[in-house]
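Question (not urgent): is this output format expected?
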Amino acid sequence: MTTSNKNIKVTITPSSDTDVVISARSYQTELMEQAKLENLIVCLPTGSGKTYIAVMLIKEMSYSIRESVKKGGKRTVFLVKTVQLVDQQSDYIRTHTNFRVGKYCGELGVDLWDKEKWEDEFEKNQVLVFTAQVFLNLIDHNYFSLKHINLIIFDECHHASGDNQYAALMNKHYDNCPDPPRVLGLTASISSKKIKPKDLLDNAKELEKTYRARIESGSSRSESIQHGTSAHVESILYSNYRDEILSKNESLTIPFEILNFMRNTIESYISKRKDEYKNIERNLSHTMLTTDYRGNNIDIYNQQSFDYTTFTQSQSVAIIHIKRFIENLIEIGYELGLYGLLIFAIEIRKKFKSNPICLSITDSSTREMFDDILQRLECLIDDILKNLCRLNEHNYEILFSSKVRLLLERRIKQQNKITISGHCRVTDIRQDLSNNGRLAYILVKYRLHTKILHNSPDLFGKISLYAGDDELFPKDSLIDNQLSKDIDQWADSTAPKALADVFEALVGAIFLDSGKCLQTVWNVIEPLLQNYIDRSITDPNLNPVRTFFEQGGKVILESTKTDTDKDIIISICIIETVNGCQFEGCGANKKMAKADACRNAIKSMMQK
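Got this back:
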């Protein structure tokens, strides 16, 4: 990928990795080094990079997974609790490594695979991401052994109590393995349930006992908390939609009556089919006991066996899923109100009409029942819910539950704080993020300036002088500490403007090379800015000139004078606040002098 800006050319080698973490934080490296030596449970705040620690450990221990299993190689296993996490974590590992990654969950039909198929998968892939139950079944059936695994990672490892799959795997198989794998647990909590402070230590010891591991959070707890994204929890009291609205408005109960009828219809059908199944199974069992397989009752046995097989094959799990959809729809209505019920009902209708559900229903009686449910849902949406929403379009108490109204009100207030504060918040953030000094610093800190090809000795000298400044780029300094400097410090940056131009040109080149895909641009640039973006959004460094004049300040004098020491002419600007305080600024031109004066004024006002 190549782009040019005057006499500057930037050449970037495309990478297959997107959204890549540029460098590990100190606590991540520390915890990974400990995990190389012993079983470890990493307990860090949400969003602090626990999965990246796992990726680092996978790479460190990768020598054994690069070999074929048949030749004594091993495999790394990553266990998660949900299907969604299978996709998420496998994608993350692919992004940050060059290993072959496989993903496995019940929805992919892996429960029907035989031992030979599983052996092929372990031979083909080096890192395998499983839902916990699928992997436990695999080990229980002896389709694969823990001794062929070098590292097993437990995501959300605090879910390990009782008969949980994580606990079952460790208790049933780990100690019996002659060469057990290294264990890495990832969690933001040591318990999956609410516990009293006095029980905290006991729960921690129990978790360590389950995983044969030690809990560790790193020596720099403040740094990991800084990078975490754990939400601040606030309790909001709200009234129940069923008690508040439905009990007072009979017409609004109609949708819920229809949904309850649909649910009861499905439950009755399922119960009836279960009774039929038990009856067929009972008759077949009785016949099997009285059949000698030499002619006596053999015709009856064959017929009942055929009936049993046919009935079993005609059962569709889709009916169970449909029942759950209807139950969820009822709860959504009670939680969100009439409008939320309409939106979710429309999505459910799309789901019911999708091919996977329609094609899975082959039995005529099941099809008849399903068609009736779908027809009632169509009527509910088009003839009832839409009309009720239209009739009450200005009555927010009916359209939305108390919970939704309270959340909307809070969201509007938060938005107003961002956008209505005497100046344009978005402009503040944009100017803060695009500060030339910051962009130049980021470019040099990540060594991207070494990729610049140019034919200007003068520019080369300026870049080398800036990049070689030990005060700006000390070896033991974190980039976050440097980027937190306020606008007054950045204003005096010695960075050549060409570096900021290169950064902006790089963004434009990525945009064009990706087919004008903004998401790709974000995936590449966001890791470079990291926490700096969050800080700018919550507390942007404001433009000093605009801030000063918005507060009623004015210019008193603009002139020039000669600096006798340097024998150069500099510009002078004197400004005055609404309170009559005057401040002087100087610079190479009028614009820089005014900015310097405004910075001095703002800095003085902030100190007061």
